[in-house]
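Sequence in, structure out.
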Amino acid sequence: MGTGEVQLQLLNTLGQVVLKRTLQPRAGTVREQLDLTHLPTGVYSVRVFTKQGTVVKRLVRE
């Protein structure tokens, strides 16, 4: 991970990475719209890795 880069991973319920992105923050903020139309409905985990730490959030695709 380079300076200031943010890594985003989307995992399915089996823990498999189904989407991976490397993002560049602007003014300390990252904003990204994800196209999930190719994924089946269900519960996913979004993991965001930064130099400051990792955040994990739950995402429900209906």
